Protein backbone atom coordinates (compact mmCIF):
# COMPACT_ATOMS: atom_id res chain seq x y z
CA UNK A 1 0.00 0.00 0.00
CA UNK A 2 1.58 3.38 -0.98
CA UNK A 3 2.45 5.75 1.87
CA UNK A 4 -0.16 8.44 2.51
CA UNK A 5 0.84 11.91 1.35
CA UNK A 6 1.58 14.37 4.15
CA UNK A 7 0.68 18.05 4.19
CA UNK A 8 2.17 20.63 6.55
CA UNK A 9 -0.23 23.50 7.27
CA UNK A 10 1.76 26.33 8.81
CA UNK A 11 0.60 29.60 10.34
CA UNK A 12 2.50 32.81 9.54
CA UNK A 13 2.30 35.35 12.41
CA UNK A 14 4.27 34.34 15.54
CA UNK A 15 4.95 30.97 13.87
CA UNK A 16 6.79 31.32 10.56
CA UNK A 17 7.85 34.77 11.77
CA UNK A 18 8.73 35.84 15.29
CA UNK A 19 6.20 38.67 15.29
CA UNK A 20 2.58 39.62 14.52
CA UNK A 21 2.84 41.44 11.19
CA UNK A 22 -0.12 43.80 11.71
CA UNK A 23 1.32 44.89 15.06
CA UNK A 24 4.64 45.59 13.30
CA UNK A 25 2.88 47.42 10.45
CA UNK A 26 1.22 49.66 13.04
CA UNK A 27 4.64 50.54 14.48
CA UNK A 28 5.73 51.61 11.01
CA UNK A 29 2.57 53.41 9.85
CA UNK A 30 1.84 55.20 13.13
CA UNK A 31 5.36 56.07 14.18
CA UNK A 32 4.67 59.83 13.96
CA UNK A 33 1.12 59.64 15.38
CA UNK A 34 0.76 61.56 18.68
CA UNK A 35 -1.33 58.77 20.24
CA UNK A 36 0.69 55.91 18.76
CA UNK A 37 1.35 54.04 22.04
CA UNK A 38 -2.35 53.86 22.87
CA UNK A 39 -3.19 52.68 19.32
CA UNK A 40 -0.40 50.04 19.38
CA UNK A 41 -1.85 48.72 22.61
CA UNK A 42 -5.37 48.54 21.12
CA UNK A 43 -4.10 46.63 18.07
CA UNK A 44 -2.12 44.19 20.22
CA UNK A 45 -5.16 43.62 22.44
CA UNK A 46 -7.35 42.82 19.42
CA UNK A 47 -4.67 40.38 18.17
CA UNK A 48 -4.42 38.56 21.51
CA UNK A 49 -8.17 38.39 22.12
CA UNK A 50 -8.70 36.64 18.79
CA UNK A 51 -5.63 34.38 19.18
CA UNK A 52 -6.98 33.19 22.54
CA UNK A 53 -10.46 32.65 21.10
CA UNK A 54 -12.07 35.46 23.14
CA UNK A 55 -13.08 37.63 20.17
CA UNK A 56 -14.19 36.56 16.69
CA UNK A 57 -11.41 36.76 14.12
CA UNK A 58 -13.46 38.89 11.69
CA UNK A 59 -14.21 41.46 14.40
CA UNK A 60 -10.56 41.57 15.47
CA UNK A 61 -9.33 41.96 11.87
CA UNK A 62 -11.78 44.74 11.01
CA UNK A 63 -10.80 46.72 14.10
CA UNK A 64 -7.06 46.34 13.47
CA UNK A 65 -7.13 47.31 9.78
CA UNK A 66 -9.19 50.43 10.68
CA UNK A 67 -6.59 51.54 13.22
CA UNK A 68 -3.56 51.01 10.94
CA UNK A 69 -3.66 54.10 8.70
CA UNK A 70 -1.16 52.28 6.47
CA UNK A 71 -0.18 52.56 2.81
CA UNK A 72 1.90 50.65 0.24
CA UNK A 73 5.13 52.44 1.24
CA UNK A 74 4.64 51.24 4.82
CA UNK A 75 4.13 47.71 3.44
CA UNK A 76 7.52 47.81 1.69
CA UNK A 77 9.19 48.69 4.99
CA UNK A 78 7.25 45.94 6.76
CA UNK A 79 8.38 43.28 4.23
CA UNK A 80 12.02 44.29 4.69
CA UNK A 81 11.57 44.00 8.47
CA UNK A 82 9.72 40.64 8.35
CA UNK A 83 12.43 39.04 6.19
CA UNK A 84 14.80 39.56 9.14
CA UNK A 85 12.24 38.21 11.61
CA UNK A 86 11.71 34.67 10.29
CA UNK A 87 11.67 32.28 13.27
CA UNK A 88 15.16 30.94 13.88
CA UNK A 89 14.24 27.27 13.64
CA UNK A 90 12.34 27.84 10.37
CA UNK A 91 15.23 29.69 8.70
CA UNK A 92 17.63 26.98 9.93
CA UNK A 93 15.54 24.34 8.12
CA UNK A 94 15.27 26.03 4.71
CA UNK A 95 16.33 22.72 3.09
CA UNK A 96 13.14 21.05 4.39
CA UNK A 97 10.95 23.62 2.60
CA UNK A 98 12.86 23.19 -0.63
CA UNK A 99 12.45 19.42 -0.49
CA UNK A 100 8.75 19.58 0.51
CA UNK A 101 7.70 22.54 -1.66
CA UNK A 102 4.59 20.66 -2.84
CA UNK A 103 3.49 19.65 0.67
CA UNK A 104 3.79 22.91 2.65
CA UNK A 105 0.82 25.28 2.88
CA UNK A 106 0.93 28.64 4.58
CA UNK A 107 -2.57 29.30 5.92
CA UNK A 108 -2.92 32.63 7.67
CA UNK A 109 -5.36 35.30 8.70
CA UNK A 110 -2.59 37.74 7.72
CA UNK A 111 -2.20 39.30 4.28
CA UNK A 112 -0.71 37.97 1.05
CA UNK A 113 0.86 41.36 0.33
CA UNK A 114 3.46 40.81 3.05
CA UNK A 115 3.38 37.00 3.41
CA UNK A 116 4.27 36.06 -0.19
CA UNK A 117 7.55 38.05 -0.33
CA UNK A 118 8.70 36.55 3.00
CA UNK A 119 7.86 32.87 2.53
CA UNK A 120 8.74 32.73 -1.19
CA UNK A 121 12.42 32.95 -0.19
CA UNK A 122 11.91 29.48 1.32
CA UNK A 123 10.71 27.85 -1.95
CA UNK A 124 7.10 27.84 -0.71
CA UNK A 125 4.88 28.01 -3.77
CA UNK A 126 2.67 31.05 -4.33
CA UNK A 127 -0.33 28.81 -5.03
CA UNK A 128 0.19 27.17 -1.60
CA UNK A 129 -0.11 30.48 0.26
CA UNK A 130 -3.62 31.15 1.57
CA UNK A 131 -4.21 34.52 3.24
CA UNK A 132 -6.28 37.70 3.13
CA UNK A 133 -5.79 40.61 0.72
CA UNK A 134 -5.98 44.35 1.34
CA UNK A 135 -8.21 46.82 -0.48
CA UNK A 136 -6.31 49.98 -1.41
CA UNK A 137 -7.21 53.33 -2.94
CA UNK A 138 -5.65 54.55 -6.20
CA UNK A 139 -2.88 56.33 -4.28
CA UNK A 140 -1.96 53.20 -2.30
CA UNK A 141 -3.78 53.78 1.01
CA UNK A 142 -4.99 50.61 2.75
CA UNK A 143 -8.64 51.21 3.54
CA UNK A 144 -10.13 47.74 3.92
CA UNK A 145 -9.72 44.05 3.09
CA UNK A 146 -11.53 41.56 0.86
CA UNK A 147 -14.51 40.49 2.98
CA UNK A 148 -15.37 37.68 0.52
CA UNK A 149 -12.19 35.79 1.51
CA UNK A 150 -13.11 32.98 3.96
CA UNK A 151 -9.87 33.65 5.90
CA UNK A 152 -11.27 37.03 6.98
CA UNK A 153 -14.14 35.30 8.76
CA UNK A 154 -14.42 33.56 12.11
CA UNK A 155 -13.40 29.90 11.59
CA UNK A 156 -11.88 30.89 8.24
CA UNK A 157 -9.10 28.29 8.30
CA UNK A 158 -11.70 25.55 8.83
CA UNK A 159 -13.77 26.86 5.88
CA UNK A 160 -10.69 26.98 3.66
CA UNK A 161 -9.63 23.40 4.46
CA UNK A 162 -13.15 22.11 3.93
CA UNK A 163 -13.01 23.69 0.48
CA UNK A 164 -9.51 22.35 -0.35
CA UNK A 165 -10.44 18.71 0.46
CA UNK A 166 -6.81 17.62 0.89
CA UNK A 167 -6.29 13.85 0.85
CA UNK A 168 -3.60 12.50 3.19
CA UNK A 169 -2.12 13.04 6.63
CA UNK A 170 -2.46 16.69 7.68
CA UNK A 171 -0.27 18.35 10.30
CA UNK A 172 -1.07 21.82 11.64
CA UNK A 173 1.59 24.07 13.18
CA UNK A 174 0.61 27.34 14.79
CA UNK A 175 0.32 29.43 17.94
CA UNK A 176 -3.30 30.51 17.99
CA UNK A 177 -6.93 29.51 18.40
CA UNK A 178 -7.63 29.51 14.64
CA UNK A 179 -4.92 26.84 14.24
CA UNK A 180 -6.40 24.70 17.01
CA UNK A 181 -9.85 24.99 15.36
CA UNK A 182 -8.54 22.84 12.47
CA UNK A 183 -7.89 20.01 14.93
CA UNK A 184 -11.16 20.54 16.76
CA UNK A 185 -13.04 20.29 13.46
CA UNK A 186 -11.29 16.99 12.65
CA UNK A 187 -9.82 18.37 9.41
CA UNK A 188 -6.20 17.75 10.45
CA UNK A 189 -4.64 14.69 12.08
CA UNK A 190 -2.45 16.51 14.61
CA UNK A 191 -2.08 20.04 15.94
CA UNK A 192 1.38 21.18 17.06
CA UNK A 193 1.36 24.28 19.28
CA UNK A 194 4.42 26.28 18.21
CA UNK A 195 5.92 28.08 21.23
CA UNK A 196 9.28 29.38 20.00
CA UNK A 197 7.94 32.96 19.98
CA UNK A 198 4.88 32.92 22.21
CA UNK A 199 3.16 30.28 24.34
CA UNK A 200 -0.56 30.86 24.81
CA UNK A 201 -1.62 28.68 27.72
CA UNK A 202 -5.15 28.09 26.43
CA UNK A 203 -3.73 26.76 23.13
CA UNK A 204 -0.84 24.76 24.61
CA UNK A 205 -3.32 22.90 26.84
CA UNK A 206 -5.28 21.69 23.78
CA UNK A 207 -2.38 20.71 21.50
CA UNK A 208 -1.49 17.16 20.47
CA UNK A 209 2.16 18.13 20.91
CA UNK A 210 3.95 21.28 22.08
CA UNK A 211 6.78 22.14 19.71
CA UNK A 212 9.14 24.80 21.10
CA UNK A 213 10.94 24.86 17.73
CA UNK A 214 10.46 23.63 14.17
CA UNK A 215 13.40 21.25 14.84
CA UNK A 216 11.23 19.55 17.47
CA UNK A 217 8.39 19.09 14.95
CA UNK A 218 10.77 17.58 12.38
CA UNK A 219 12.41 15.35 15.00
CA UNK A 220 9.11 13.96 16.35
CA UNK A 221 7.93 13.19 12.83
CA UNK A 222 11.29 11.76 11.74
CA UNK A 223 11.70 14.32 8.93
CA UNK A 224 14.99 15.68 7.52
CA UNK A 225 16.32 18.56 9.64
CA UNK A 226 19.30 20.86 10.04
CA UNK A 227 20.25 19.67 13.53
CA UNK A 228 20.17 16.09 14.66
CA UNK A 229 18.66 16.62 18.11
CA UNK A 230 16.38 19.57 19.01
CA UNK A 231 18.01 22.07 21.37
CA UNK A 232 14.80 22.34 23.40
CA UNK A 233 15.38 18.71 24.49
CA UNK A 234 18.82 19.53 25.92
CA UNK A 235 18.56 20.36 29.62
CA UNK A 236 20.78 23.30 30.52
CA UNK A 237 21.33 24.02 34.22
CA UNK A 238 22.38 27.49 35.28
CA UNK A 239 23.68 27.41 38.86
CA UNK A 240 24.18 30.36 41.20
CA UNK A 241 24.22 34.12 40.69
CA UNK A 242 24.64 34.32 36.91
CA UNK A 243 24.31 37.49 34.83
CA UNK A 244 20.98 37.63 32.91
CA UNK A 245 22.96 38.28 29.69
CA UNK A 246 24.65 34.85 30.01
CA UNK A 247 21.27 33.16 30.49
CA UNK A 248 19.72 35.10 27.57
CA UNK A 249 22.46 33.83 25.22
CA UNK A 250 21.70 30.21 26.15
CA UNK A 251 17.95 30.78 25.93
CA UNK A 252 18.25 32.40 22.49
CA UNK A 253 20.05 29.29 21.29
CA UNK A 254 16.89 27.31 22.10
CA UNK A 255 18.15 25.31 25.10
CA UNK A 256 15.77 24.25 27.87
CA UNK A 257 16.96 26.32 30.86
CA UNK A 258 16.58 25.68 34.61
CA UNK A 259 18.11 28.32 36.89
CA UNK A 260 18.90 26.90 40.34
CA UNK A 261 20.95 27.74 43.43
CA UNK A 262 22.55 24.28 43.54
CA UNK A 263 23.02 21.13 41.44
CA UNK A 264 19.82 19.36 42.47
CA UNK A 265 19.81 15.56 42.50
CA UNK A 266 16.78 15.30 40.20
CA UNK A 267 18.77 16.84 37.31
CA UNK A 268 21.96 14.75 37.62
CA UNK A 269 21.16 11.99 35.13
CA UNK A 270 19.57 14.22 32.45
CA UNK A 271 21.61 17.43 32.38
CA UNK A 272 23.38 18.08 29.06
CA UNK A 273 25.03 21.42 29.80
CA UNK A 274 25.89 23.40 32.94
CA UNK A 275 26.76 27.09 33.40
CA UNK A 276 28.18 27.87 36.84
CA UNK A 277 28.54 31.21 38.60
CA UNK A 278 31.98 32.01 39.99
CA UNK A 279 32.55 30.26 43.32
CA UNK A 280 30.07 27.43 42.69
CA UNK A 281 31.23 23.80 43.09
CA UNK A 282 30.22 20.41 41.70
CA UNK A 283 31.00 17.38 43.87
CA UNK A 284 32.95 14.73 42.01
CA UNK A 285 30.52 11.98 43.04
CA UNK A 286 27.63 13.85 41.35
CA UNK A 287 29.73 14.69 38.32
CA UNK A 288 30.50 11.01 37.72
CA UNK A 289 26.76 10.24 37.53
CA UNK A 290 26.02 13.04 35.05
CA UNK A 291 26.30 10.68 32.08
CA UNK A 292 24.59 13.00 29.55
CA UNK A 293 26.68 16.05 30.46
CA UNK A 294 28.59 17.32 27.44
CA UNK A 295 30.07 20.63 28.52
CA UNK A 296 30.45 22.98 31.51
CA UNK A 297 30.91 26.74 31.33
CA UNK A 298 32.44 28.26 34.47
CA UNK A 299 32.17 32.03 34.91
CA UNK A 300 35.50 32.39 36.71
CA UNK A 301 38.39 30.15 37.70
CA UNK A 302 37.20 26.52 38.06
CA UNK A 303 40.36 25.35 39.86
CA UNK A 304 39.35 23.41 42.97
CA UNK A 305 35.65 23.75 42.09
CA UNK A 306 35.46 20.96 39.50
CA UNK A 307 37.48 17.81 39.09
CA UNK A 308 39.02 18.46 35.66
CA UNK A 309 40.49 14.97 35.47
CA UNK A 310 37.03 13.36 35.94
CA UNK A 311 35.54 15.70 33.33
CA UNK A 312 38.23 14.80 30.78
CA UNK A 313 37.81 11.07 31.37
CA UNK A 314 34.04 11.43 30.90
CA UNK A 315 34.43 13.50 27.72
CA UNK A 316 33.01 16.68 29.33
CA UNK A 317 34.50 19.82 27.79
CA UNK A 318 35.23 22.64 30.28
CA UNK A 319 35.36 26.33 29.42
CA UNK A 320 36.40 28.62 32.25
CA UNK A 321 37.98 31.99 32.75
CA UNK A 322 40.96 31.75 35.09
CA UNK A 323 41.73 35.47 34.68
CA UNK A 324 38.15 36.60 35.51
CA UNK A 325 37.87 38.66 32.34
CA UNK A 326 34.94 41.12 32.54
CA UNK A 327 33.78 39.82 29.13
CA UNK A 328 33.25 36.30 30.48
CA UNK A 329 29.49 36.90 30.91
CA UNK A 330 29.17 36.55 27.13
CA UNK A 331 32.48 34.86 26.24
CA UNK A 332 31.93 31.65 28.26
CA UNK A 333 28.29 31.03 27.17
CA UNK A 334 29.33 31.66 23.55
CA UNK A 335 32.13 29.08 23.82
CA UNK A 336 29.71 26.52 25.29
CA UNK A 337 27.12 27.21 22.56
CA UNK A 338 29.78 27.00 19.86
CA UNK A 339 30.88 23.60 21.16
CA UNK A 340 27.27 22.35 21.20
CA UNK A 341 26.65 23.63 17.66
CA UNK A 342 29.91 23.00 15.80
CA UNK A 343 32.06 20.84 18.09
CA UNK A 344 34.62 23.66 18.53
CA UNK A 345 36.75 23.23 21.68
CA UNK A 346 38.61 26.51 21.15
CA UNK A 347 39.83 27.94 24.51
CA UNK A 348 38.76 24.83 26.44
CA UNK A 349 40.58 24.18 29.74
CA UNK A 350 40.78 20.40 29.40
CA UNK A 351 40.35 19.44 25.73
CA UNK A 352 42.61 19.73 22.71
CA UNK A 353 41.77 23.00 20.92
CA UNK A 354 39.82 22.55 17.72
CA UNK A 355 37.86 25.18 15.80
CA UNK A 356 36.03 24.24 12.63
CA UNK A 357 33.73 25.91 10.12
CA UNK A 358 30.29 24.37 9.63
CA UNK A 359 30.26 22.36 6.40
CA UNK A 360 27.08 22.55 4.35
CA UNK A 361 25.27 19.44 3.10
CA UNK A 362 27.05 17.13 5.52
CA UNK A 363 26.56 15.56 8.93
CA UNK A 364 29.10 16.18 11.69
CA UNK A 365 29.90 13.33 14.06
CA UNK A 366 31.91 13.74 17.27
CA UNK A 367 33.79 10.80 18.72
CA UNK A 368 35.59 11.22 22.06
CA UNK A 369 37.80 8.30 23.07
CA UNK A 370 40.70 7.29 25.28
CA UNK A 371 44.01 8.17 23.67
CA UNK A 372 45.12 4.63 22.80
CA UNK A 373 46.73 3.52 19.52
CA UNK A 374 44.62 2.32 16.60
CA UNK A 375 41.27 3.95 17.37
CA UNK A 376 41.18 6.15 14.27
CA UNK A 377 41.79 3.05 12.15
CA UNK A 378 38.80 1.38 13.84
CA UNK A 379 36.61 4.46 13.30
CA UNK A 380 37.51 4.59 9.61
CA UNK A 381 36.98 0.83 9.22
CA UNK A 382 33.40 1.37 10.46
CA UNK A 383 32.91 4.18 7.90
CA UNK A 384 34.30 1.99 5.12
CA UNK A 385 32.02 -0.92 6.06
CA UNK A 386 29.00 1.37 5.78
CA UNK A 387 30.16 2.86 2.45
CA UNK A 388 30.36 6.33 3.98
CA UNK A 389 31.97 9.12 2.03
CA UNK A 390 34.11 11.23 4.42
CA UNK A 391 34.05 14.93 3.51
CA UNK A 392 36.59 15.98 6.15
CA UNK A 393 38.12 14.60 9.33
CA UNK A 394 40.03 16.12 12.23
CA UNK A 395 41.73 14.53 15.21
CA UNK A 396 43.29 16.24 18.20
CA UNK A 397 44.72 14.44 21.21
CA UNK A 398 46.16 15.11 24.63
CA UNK A 399 47.59 12.57 27.09
CA UNK A 400 44.16 11.37 28.19
CA UNK A 401 41.84 11.57 25.20
CA UNK A 402 41.41 11.76 21.45
CA UNK A 403 38.81 14.06 19.98
CA UNK A 404 37.75 13.20 16.42
CA UNK A 405 35.34 15.17 14.28
CA UNK A 406 34.18 13.63 11.02
CA UNK A 407 32.01 15.35 8.42
CA UNK A 408 30.25 12.80 6.22
CA UNK A 409 27.99 13.13 3.20
CA UNK A 410 24.29 13.27 3.97
CA UNK A 411 23.38 9.65 3.31
CA UNK A 412 23.99 7.27 6.20
CA UNK A 413 22.52 4.24 7.89
CA UNK A 414 21.44 4.51 11.59
CA UNK A 415 23.38 1.29 12.24
CA UNK A 416 26.55 3.33 11.65
CA UNK A 417 26.05 5.19 14.95
CA UNK A 418 25.64 1.98 16.92
CA UNK A 419 28.85 0.61 15.42
CA UNK A 420 30.80 3.80 16.30
CA UNK A 421 29.51 3.75 19.90
CA UNK A 422 30.60 0.11 20.25
CA UNK A 423 34.26 0.79 19.40
CA UNK A 424 36.39 -0.12 22.40
CA UNK A 425 37.61 2.87 24.49
CA UNK A 426 34.80 5.15 23.21
CA UNK A 427 33.89 7.73 25.86
CA UNK A 428 31.16 9.75 24.10
CA UNK A 429 29.67 9.89 20.64
CA UNK A 430 27.08 12.28 19.24
CA UNK A 431 25.73 13.64 15.97
CA UNK A 432 25.78 17.43 15.76
CA UNK A 433 23.74 18.09 12.64
Largest sheet: 6 strands, parallel
Sheet/helix structural class:
alpha/beta
CATH class of the largest domain: Alpha Beta
Largest sheet strand order = 3-2-1-6-7-8
| Total strand segments | 17
CATH homolog superfamily of the largest domain: HAD superfamily/HAD-like
Supply database-style keywords.
five-stranded parallel β-sheet, Rossmann fold, 433 residues, 17 strands, alpha/beta, six-stranded parallel β-sheet, Alpha-Beta Plaits
Written description of the protein model:
It holds the Pfam family ACT_AHAS_ss. This is phosphoserine phosphatase. The protein has 433 residues and is of the alpha/beta class. Helix content is 36%, strand content 22%. The longest helix is centred in the N-terminal third of the chain and has 16 residues, at 36-51. The radius of gyration is 25 Å and the shape is globular.
Can you summarize this structure?
With 433 residues, the chain is an alpha/beta fold.
Write the layout of secondary structure elements.
Elements: E1 6-10, H1 12-16, H2 21-29, H3 36-51, H4 57-68, H5 72-83, H6 88-92, H7 94-99, E2 104-111, H8 112-119, E3 129-132, E4 134-136, E5 142-145, H9 156-164, E6 169-174, H10 177-184, E7 190-194, H11 201-204, E8 209-211, H12 214-220, E9 235-239, H13 244-252, E10 256-260, E11 271-276, H14 284-289, E12 295-298, H15 308-314, E13 317-320, H16 328-342, E14 362-370, H17 375-385, E15 390-397, E16 401-409, H18 415-421, E17 426-431
Helix pairs in contact: 2-3, 2-4, 2-5, 3-4, 5-8, 9-10, 13-16
Pfam families: ACT_AHAS_ss
Protein name: phosphoserine phosphatase
Cofactor: Mg(2+)
Amino acid sequence: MPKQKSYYIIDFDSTFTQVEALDELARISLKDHPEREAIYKKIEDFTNLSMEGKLSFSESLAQRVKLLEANEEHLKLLIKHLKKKVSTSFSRNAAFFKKHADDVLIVSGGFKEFIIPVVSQYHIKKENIYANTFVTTGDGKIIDYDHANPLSEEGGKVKLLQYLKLEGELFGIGDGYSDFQLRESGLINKFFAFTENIARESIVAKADHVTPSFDEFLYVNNLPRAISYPKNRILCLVIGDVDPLSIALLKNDGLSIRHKTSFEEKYVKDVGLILLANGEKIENEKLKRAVKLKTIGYLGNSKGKLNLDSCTKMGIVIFDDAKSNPHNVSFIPKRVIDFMNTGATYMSSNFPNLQLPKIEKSHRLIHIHKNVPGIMAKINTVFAKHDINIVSQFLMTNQEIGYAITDINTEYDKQLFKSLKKIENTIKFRVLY
